[in-house]
Specification:
The chain has 60 residues and is mainly β. The chain contains no helices and 6 strands.
Amino acid sequence: MVVNYTAPDLDQTNMVTLTFPGCTTALVYTEEGTQQVDLVEGGILRVTLGCGQAAFIIPV
């Protein structure tokens, strides 16, 4: 679970980089729906979240 715990009045967007060695895809669940995402070589996933947004990620 990844969360952007920034005060909404700051209106900040944050990007995080997660590494899942040995994985090639990930299921990413957000309030906008579910996506199957191909990871960059080395199992890297970049997620951008606005204030108060969250993503539940399952590496495959």
